[in-house]
Specification:
Largest sheet: 5 strands, parallel
Number of strands: 5
Radius of gyration: 34 Å
Distance between the termini: 75 Å
Mean pLDDT: 80
């Protein structure tokens, strides 16, 4: 039997017909013959043919019964079958096709006709298999890409959460620890049947993930309050309490721009209600008892337990035993009594040391997995208006498509995943979380203290991105982000910073972002600066060609400037 040839099985109770068929087909196919249905099934234990040519009129087991049995076996159900018969009428043909036959051939048939029909159906079967393999491959790639994006989003999400934690001057790991406490608490509530009806309707993994954003509102709290080592004054505490509302509002705004916001709904509830109290004396809404969503009641207890058992600027860490006593005393006043009962029943499992052994030593610099929408919100922090990240993304999308059509850049750009590139671009200024916003002046120059500040935000941004890379399976996902963050302040003539790179030695991502960043900075309203018109901005960029900017990229901008102006008008009028 030749390996590269298709295998055909002829089934007919007439030995002469079998011999003729074998002689007609043997030059092109591997041919096996069977004089009855029983012999066919014995043969099928040894081989799996590409096609079966089956006589209908046979004693004991006719072709229809053979067909029925073939379809009942998963191993043979998909083998194409051509019925061979001397007696054909429309009713029989319809019946056979209805059973799964692919064709009918009248006998006797010519050698040429038989081969043509067999070739046709073998080709169709090959195309079906190729299509199936393609669909399977496509599904795998889609799943892989979906997993990749989700993994990247989750990486960004935790980074943002821990950035909040760092601003709060909290010893690292609060986010990670409270997630583990929540997971334990939910498991124990289900085990004891407490609130199980409601919990069974939740996507628990989604709930746990969303808990990372419970304190995201602290982004909007001033540093002198957030990091104050002494006790807050009444006025300061009132301002601090607003972080719950700030957090809920931030997440609600993001929800308005997303189609699937089930994740964010949990996050909004957690952010807005984890400081409510069972007796109604909490904030920001003064909810009482079951009025407080269950998500907030669960977060309240694990948040307080972690705060008690860890050092904060205003207090030393309490022992597990002392912390549990405080929580016990707040049963029915601050905390849901049913939840406290479960918490106390399993207090050993919640003991800080046990959790730390599970999740390892977590330092404040150990940034973990975030959602791109939250990164978007973070990128707006520090005086840059809230639409900046989205505008830059839209400008980059226009530029990306234009570069694909450009002979000079097509080869490199074509190898990039556009979606990942645009997502990565949101992080080019993430280091500004630790500095202030810098805006290029008309001359394209920075004064000395501005250079120092920009360099600081670049270094801090690179640090964050590299820590994200360490936390995700495919660190290459942050390749664009790292390149843009580290090089978008470099200049074509080598006078930029932080490394003084020159010409094509500057990564293409940084050269692109340099133009987009300046275009947006000049055409948008900024504090203490009047925005430029599109024409003024294009002229400024053209005047910096060959000094600040890559001349070829400026040419691409000028060729496509109408699209940029149209996009600008959507935001600025």
């Amino acid at each position: 039997m030749e390996k590269n040839r298709e295998t055909i099985v002829m089934v007919d109770d007439d030995i002469t017909n079998l011999n003729v068929a074998r002689n007609n087909l043997a030059d092109k196919y591997n041919v096996f013959t069977a004089p009855s249905g029983e012999k066919l099934f014995m043969l099928l234990k040894r081989i799996t043919p590409d096609l079966i040519v089956l006589d209908i009129e046979m004693p004991e087991m006719d072709g229809y019964k053979v067909m029925e049995k073939l379809k009942q076996d998963e191993r043979t159900a998909n083998i194409p079958v051509i019925f061979l018969t001397a007696k054909i009428n429309p009713e029989n043909e319809i019946a056979g096709l209805g059973m799964g036959a692919v064709d009918y051939i009248n006998k006797p048939s010519s050698k040429e006709l038989l081969i043509k029909r067999i070739d046709l159906h073998l080709l169709m079967e090959k195309q079906k298999k190729d299509l199936h393999r393609y669909n399977m491959s496509l599904e795998i790639e889609v799943n892989k890409k979906t997993k990749t994006i989700l993994e990247l989003q989750n990486a960004i999400l935790k980074t943002v959460a821990e950035l909040v934690e760092c601003r709060d001057n909290i010893t690292g790991g609060h986010i990670e620890r409270t997630q583990h406490y929540l997971r334990l608490l939910v498991d124990f509530l289900l085990e004891h049947g407490v609130y199980s009806d409601e919990l069974s309707k939740w996507d628990i993994d989604l709930f746990i993930m969303s808990s990372q954003l419970h304190d995201v509102g602290k982004i909007s709290v001033k540093d002198d309050i957030l990091m104050k080592a002494d006790k807050l004054t009444a006025t300061e505490f009132d301002l601090m309490k607003k972080h719950a509302l700030y957090g809920a509002n931030i997440i609600r705004k993001i929800e308005n721009n997303t189609s699937d916001n089930s994740f964010l709904q949990n996050a909004e509830v957690l952010a807005g209600t984890h400081h409510e109290k069972w007796n109604g004396n909490g904030y920001p809404f003064g909810l009482k008892g079951d009025e407080i969503p269950l998500q907030g009641r669960l977060m309240a207890i694990v948040d307080v337990y972690d705060a008690l058992t860890n050092e904060r600027p205003y207090k030393k860490a309490y022992s597990h035993e002392h912390s549990m006593e405080i929580i016990k005393n707040e049963r029915g006043s601050q905390f849901d009594p049913h939840v406290v009962d479960i918490f106390l029943t399993h207090e050993k499992e919640f003991k800080k040391d046990a959790i730390i052994r599970k999740i390892g030593d977590i330092g404040s610099d150990n940034f973990r997995p975030a959602l791109k929408t939250i990164a978007h919100e973070i990128s707006m922090h520090g005086g840059v208006e809230k639409s900046r990240a989205e505008r830059i993304g839209n400008y980059l999308s226009i530029f990306f498509d234009a570069l694909i059509e450009n002979d000079r850049f097509r080869a490199e750009i074509f190898s990039w995943d556009k979606e990942i590139f645009l997502l990565s671009a949101q992080f080019h200024d993430i280091g500004k979380q630790n500095t202030y916003d810098i805006i290029l002046n008309e001359s394209g120059e920075y004064v000395a203290d501005e250079v120092s500040s920009v360099t600081t935000h670049i270094e801090f941004g690179i640090k964050i991105i590299r820590q994200i890379k360490d936390c995700i399976e495919d660190g290459s996902l942050m390749y664009h982000a790292e390149a843009m963050t580290g090089s978008h302040h470099e200049k074509w003539d080598g006078t930029g910073f932080p490394h003084g790179l020159k010409g094509s030695g500057i990564p293409l991502q940084g050269r692109i972002m340099a133009i987009i960043d300046v275009y947006d900075a000049l055409t948008a309203n900024r504090p203490n600066k009047i925005k430029k018109t599109h024409r003024e901005t294009i002229n400024i960029i053209k005047n910096c060609t060959g000094t600040h900017f890559d001349p070829d990229l400026v040419d691409v901008l000028v060729i496509n400037e109408a699209e940029f102006d149209e996009e600008r008008r959507k935001w600025n009028g």
